[in-house]
Amino acid sequence: MKISIDTACCKGCGICINICPKQVYARSKIRNRYGTAMPEPIKENECIGCKLCERLCPDGAINVEE
Asked: Engineering a disulfide at 40: which of 28, 51, 60, 64 sits with its beta carbon 3.0 to 4.6 angstroms away?
């Protein structure tokens, strides 16, 4: 899977970090324009393509491609 996060849209809410069944995401040290830590797909190769992160992201900032 290929996971991309639109840093211009993401507010760093952490829903993707908490909802992922495979714990693919972690908080990055990189801050977004809102000053919050961005999510980072650290285990992208373990993504099962359920797209919960993509569907539940309130900002539409995540895209999961097969």
From this structure: 28
